[in-house]
Structures are given as structure tokens and as C-alpha cells.
Design a protein that fits this description.
This protein has 137 residues and is mainly β. The chain is built from one helix and eight strands; from the N terminus they run ββαββββββ. A hairpin with an 8-residue loop joins β4 and β5. The strands form two sheets. It has a six-stranded antiparallel barrel with strand order 1-2-7-6-3-8. A two-stranded antiparallel ribbon has the order 4-5. The longest helix is centred in the first third of the chain and has 4 residues.
């Protein structure tokens, strides 16, 4: 079996927010901001609706390179260290994040959202609906 060693992704857009302090998780965030998606993907945004929740896959572009010291970390809500794969930590072997955001409105290639837990300028890699209303496709 051949294995692929390089995976190349490119941002489809970027996060914008005026917030200076960002909550560590979308679960506790009420921060608002926008997802500005490259206009070449405009047709793919057409069916995103107000009130919908969308998963946003993003790149932790400000995180340091992963090192063994990040294998077990102490999240703010715990009194002990736990394994990185049991956390939402931005210190990851592959710096990929996932947030679930509420869609407030859509204006062309700009999606206004609530629940931001990403820094201003964060590269967006993909968007998926929380629930696909037309089946498993």
C-alpha cells in the first residue's frame, strides 16, 4: 500500500472578528464575526441559510510546531493533564481546528456568524452543514 506523505490544502477564505480576546471553544463563545470566502466559491455558498449551524474547518496558523510536550496538556477546565486528542487544544500534530457556528446572515461571499473561537485572519479550509437536510450526501 502506497502512503501519501504530503497533503496540500489551501484556504478558501479567512475569519474576520474585532474581538481582542477569543473564547477557547465555540461551545462557550457568543463572539460574532465573518467568514469571507473566496468569490470563486460563491456558487457553493448559495444554500447556506440564516439560522443554520455550520462546521468550519480551519488552520491553527498561530500555533507552534507540535512537540512531545503537547502530548498531554492541562485544559483550563481540568485539574490534571489529559491527552491532546481528548481536548480542543490548538497545539496539535496537524494544526487543524473545527468549530460549529451559527449563521446570522449571508451577503454574497461573506457569512456572518456567531460562536467565533478563531483569531482574526484565521485561514478557513472548508465548511460543512451541521445537518444535511437532503440526506447523507
Amino acid at each position: 500500500m502506497e502512503t501519501q506523505t504530503d497533503i496540500k490544502v489551501k484556504p478558501i477564505g479567512f475569519v474576520s472578528t474585532d474581538a481582542k480576546e477569543i473564547p477557547r471553544s465555540w461551545k462557550v463563545s457568543d463572539m460574532e464575526g465573518t467568514l469571507t470566502i473566496d468569490e470563486s466559491y460563491l456558487e457553493g455558498l448559495r444554500d447556506i441559510q440564516v439560522g443554520q449551524r455550520i462546521y468550519v474547518v480551519f488552520h491553527f496558523h498561530k500555533s507552534p510546531e507540535f512537540a512531545p510536550q503537547y502530548m498531554r496538556i492541562k485544559p483550563p477546565i481540568y485539574d490534571k493533564k489529559i491527552g491532546v486528542f481528548s481536548t480542543h487544544s490548538p497545539f496539535r500534530p496537524n494544526p487543524i481546528g473545527l468549530s460549529l457556528l451559527d449563521v446570522l446572515r449571508v451577503e454574497g461571499n461573506v457569512i456572518h456568524v456567531k460562536g467565533i473561537d478563531m483569531l482574526d485572519g484565521t485561514p478557513i479550509l472548508d465548511i460543512k452543514p451541521e445537518v444535511c437536510p437532503w440526506g447523507d450526501s
